[in-house]
User: Fold this.
Amino acid sequence: MLRDDRDQLTPGRLTTVRVDPYWRRVLALFECYRQIVHNPGKPVGRDILAELHPGHWWLVANRWPELVPAFPGSRA
Assistant:
């Protein structure tokens, strides 16, 4: 559903998903990608970025620097 833009995961909804925290972060990564693909030119929401593993945030920011700010505290 995320891939087809038929649904979205807000941080509030993400916390209700009953999976290991590792998988919750992976779902946040999928939501981040959904926003990039289905909202061209619009920055990814900081609320969903905050749910990402720092390494994932760094990778996404390096791939789409115009849509994703650098991870806080990282050297850009």
About this structure: The mean pLDDT is 91. The chain has four helices and no strands. The chain has one domain: 1-76.
